[in-house]
Amino acid sequence: MILIPSKKKKMSHYFSPTHTSADRIKKLFVSLRNQNMVLQTAREVFSPENIDKGTEILINALILPSSIENAYFLDLGAGYGPISIWLSKYLAFHELTQQTAQTPPITSLNYKIFASEVNERALWLLKRNIVSNKCGNIEILPGPFQDSVEKLKSSNIKFNAVYTNPPLKTGHKNMLELFEAAADLLTENGFIQYVHKKKLGSEGFQAKLLDIKPTWNIKTIKKQSGYHVILFSPKPLNISSRKSSTSGYF
Length: 250
Ligand SMILES: C[S@@+](CC[C@H](N)C(=O)[O-])C[C@H]1O[C@@H](n2cnc3c(N)ncnc32)[C@H](O)[C@@H]1O
Fold this sequence. Notes:
Layout: E1 26-32, E2 35-41, H1 53-60, E3 72-76, H2 82-98, E4 112-117, H3 120-132, E5 138-142, H4 145-154, E6 159-164, H5 172-183, E7 186-197, H6 202-212, E8 217-224, E9 227-233, H7 239-243
Parallel strand pairs: 3-4, 3-6, 4-5, 6-7
Antiparallel strand pairs: 1-2, 7-9, 8-9
């Protein structure tokens, strides 16, 4: 009798750099905080059927730096781009609505959003979504974020805000590495804002972040549907005064 070895199908995950299944493009029509986006998704990227609940909660609670002029933003683990694209549209909308009859013409505040992503299919979708949503100020950082750090440092880029729905399934060790790399690229008044499922160890992970940056501040600013939205920053942030500001940032 001849035994034919069974062909084991290699599984790939949303955080794998490459993918194995055929793509099957799907369009999501998403409206959040007055910004409409059409996002193309496909299998083997994170949350292909709908925008992820955690991402939605993060965007709804997203905080901007006190000034966006010349600001650098990082979307860490951008996937097919919901956070970067929403932010780009929101900031453009903000620029337009801030113009008054006294301040023509429209000025460019010269901010930039960096979108870091490792998964090739997500990168392909991200590029398409940036073009189709007409977001001119997003630059993609392809590959593991840790590999982009030197390039960013040599270009003197420091982030005013880092937003992330982190790859929880890769484990806390990998996530800590990502957060540590991002933390080293923050401005003095910068912050990391992220979302974490409570049952996937949100509180334990906060303790680990404080182990690597014991003098930093960490605060849960929103709890919704089992998700925590957390701010991690070298300096305390006065969120309530920003919330009541008339800048339209919130
Ligand atoms: C939870 S998903 C969030 C995706 C997207 N931001 C969203 O909200 O739909 C995390 C993303 O991080 C990416 N990722 C994992 N490890 C990474 C790394 N070392 N560098 C950059 N991106 C990474 C994964 O491929 C995945 O797309």
